[in-house]
Design brief:
The protein is an alpha+beta fold. The protein has a domain at about 30-40 and about 55-280 and about 410-455. About 30% of the residues lie in helices and about 15% in strands. A hairpin with a 6-residue loop joins strand 14 and strand 15 (about 535-540). The chain is globular, with a radius of gyration of 23 Å. The two termini are about 40 Å apart. The relative contact order is 0.18. The chain binds glutamic acid.
């Protein structure tokens, strides 16, 4: 349903206020980076992203009369400029939307797809051993058909009031005029320097003059501005069927290695893959949790099903009346059980039957909850449950199911609400920070490495693996853009980057807010732990300092990890107020804003759970 209500010609004038420099790369000018505010309360609409420029662009769209879908797409396009290592038109994502006019939650599946030429053995060597992960990442082989351009177009068409061209204006301004390099951006570039040096157009763009960009310098991306302008003028045809499609295919099939750099594996993407790409609308996942309705992303993401199953399990326990340690013990155990089921049963539903209704049924959750011993942590990994509709006494413990390794801070999540009560919860990514490392020459964006989210080889050949590569298949994701309603009205929305830790970050933040009574800002800031059915639980130092000893006494084992996730969220407070919240510290901190700010709001954490 197209609803063109607003034409925001004013958006054509969106600029950054920076002085334009000549040519790509970093100008010499030293500029202060825009201020990052992690919490804002007010009216007129709210935006929370990881980046102040993107938040500003989103707020400008809202202030000019655009709705949450318009602002989310505009902010995402801005992130394609300022967070090019996490997000952009070379990648994919999942867009979850609450439409205030209909009261419905819808989702757009903008996940990348495998080329038609990709078989189950794509990530195996000639001798059948799985490829080295980084060798697969930094290659044409990892590049799936990008879904982000079509996601933006579909989001605007279905829910928005702006044209794609209008929504891209803020991003075009930022790409033309540049953004100020901050410490986080410089560090991310440094972390990826070796990868970026392998590919000539990437080194040229992000290592200006052969050097890391300096903090305070202004980085421009005129090629991306031109690419956005092309989409603004001609729509998606160039990207999925025209000259841009030709360039993407040529780049994937023959990656542009720098002179002297080692050759990487070519990819399998062809024009037909781009031409047939679709970003379908899917029904959201839904679970009830303490009187709230929690909506998430259905497969091929495991976000909605795993967060949902864990909440169903946790609902069996009176978390609101438990002290921190037993509450966190239940949280870690519920996460492990849900991850066992996720690993065993969730993949692209077009290729593998996903028992979604059973995974999210209260009876299955009750059976799974039987396994949790309040006095002792389960040995991990735990065995997957059997979501077959027949639930009796607790299943016996059994053999291991594999689980993921370390997860970096890639990807980005943005949350937007407008004055009418529409909500967008949107997670987008190019997979690893810096994606495949391959920039499409002359086009200004990096291609994803999303296909390395496929399982390279089954952990146990006797157990069906739902996430092997196949022609046209979408790799399983962990992205978990979430919207929470009460009695059909929006209460809050959130999401995070962080690979498979996304699921536990969203889950823990919900538990912090609903059961522990923290306000959304505190719920996001609180120290995290992530149990994903691995022998040890990843935990931040502050989490270990507070709870490590007592949880270890219950049998939990931890691996200290510097930081987990970088969430953003929006909450609807009583009295028509909106709260925007972003990370205060992790990943350099995020940026929250509202259209009309109100200082001094007394209660940021009204009771949410009916029986929490
Ligand atoms: N590719 C990951 C997924 O879809 C997200 C990347 C990340 O956040 O590290 O689950």
């Amino acid at each position: 349903m197209a609803r063109r209500r607003t034409t925001l010609l004013a958006l054509a004038g969106l600029t950054t206020g920076l002085v334009a420099a000549g040519g790509p790369g970093a100008a010499v000018a030293q500029e202060p980076a825009p201020e990052k505010v992690p919490l804002a309360v007010g009216t007129g609409g709210a935006v929370a992203t990881v980046d102040p420029d993107a938040t500003r662009v989103g707020l400008q769209v809202l202030a000019a009369g655009g709705n949450a879908a318009d602002a989310a797409v505009a902010a995402a396009a801005a992130l394609g400029v300022t967070e090019p290592y996490s997000a952009g038109i070379g990648g994919g994502g999942f867009f979850v939307y609450y439409d205030a006019a209909t009261g419905e939650v819808s989702t757009i599946d903008g996940r990348e797809t495998a080329p038609l030429a990709m078989g189950a053995d794509a990530f195996l060597d000639a001798d059948g051993t799985p490829l080295d992960f980084q060798e697969a990442v930094q290659s044409g082989l990892s590049v799936g058909t990008p879904g982000t351009p079509l996601t933006w177009d579909r989001a605007l068409e279905e829910f928005g009031t702006l044209s794609l061209g209008e929504a891209l204006q803020g991003g075009i301004g930022l790409a033309d005029e540049g953004f100020v390099v901050d410490e986080t951006f410089r560090q991310q570039t440094a972390d990826n320097e070796a990868k970026f040096r392998r590919f000539a157009p990437t080194a040229e763009l992000f290592l200006p003059g052969g050097q890391l960009p300096e903090v305070g310098s202004v980085l421009r991306n005129p090629d991306l501005a031109d690419t956005y302008r092309l989409l603004a003028d001609q729509g998606l045809e160039p990207f999925y069927a025209g000259g841009l499609a030709d360039d993407i295919v040529a780049t994937v099939q023959d990656p542009p290695e720098a002179p002297g750099a080692e050759q990487v594996r070519p990819g399998l993407l062809e024009r037909a893959d781009l031409a047939r790409y679709d970003a379908p609308l899917r029904a959201p996942t839904q679970v009830a949790y303490r009187g709230l309705q929690v909506y998430g992303m259905a497969p091929p993401s495991s976000g909605g099903s795993t967060v949902g199953e864990a909440l169903d399990v946790l609902e069996q326990f009176p978390l609101g009346s438990l002290p921190d340690v037993p509450l966190l013990h239940s949280y870690l155990e519920a996460a492990a059980l849900s991850f066992a089921d996720r690993n065993r049963y969730v993949g692209d539903p077009a290729y593998t039957p996903v028992p979604l209704a059973e995974l999210l049924s209260d009876d299955f959750a009750a059976e799974r909850a039987c396994a949790i011993d309040p006095a002792a942590a389960l040995p991990k990994p735990v065995e997957a449950g059997v979501p077959d509709g027949e639930y009796g006494p607790c299943p016996a413990e059994g053999a291991a199911t594999g689980a993921g390794g370390a997860e970096g801070p890639s990807t980005t999540h943005l949350t937007v609400a407008d004055a009418e009560g529409n909500v967008a919860s949107y997670t987008l990514t190019i997979e690893q920070t810096g994606g495949s490392g391959i920039t499409v020459p002359g086009r200004g964006f990096i291609l994803n490495n999303e296909l390395t989210d496929f399982t390279f080889a089954p952990a146990d050949p006797t157990v069906p693996e739902p996430n092997l590569p196949a022609p046209g298949k979408r790799p399983r994701s962990s992205m978990a853009p979430t919207i929470v309603l009460r009695d059909g009205a929006p209460v809050l929305a959130l999401g995070s980057p962080g690979g498979s830790t996304i699921i536990t970050t969203v889950l823990q933040t919900l538990v912090n807010r609903v059961d522990r009574g923290m306000d959304l800002g505190a719920a996001i800031a609180a120290p995290r732990a992530s149990q994903r059915n691995s022998p040890t639980t990843d935990a931040e130092p502050a989490f270990l300092a507070l709870y490590g000893e007592q949880l270890q006494a219950l049998g939990h084992r931890f691996t200290e990890t510097a930081e987990i996730g970088a969430a953003t969220g929006v909450e609807f407070l009583p009295g028509g107020l909106l709260l925007a919240a972003a990370e205060p510290e992790r990943r350099g901190g995020g940026s929250a804003g509202v259209v009309h700010e109100l200082p001094g709001v007394p209660d940021l954490a009204p009771d949410l759970g009916a029986d929490g």
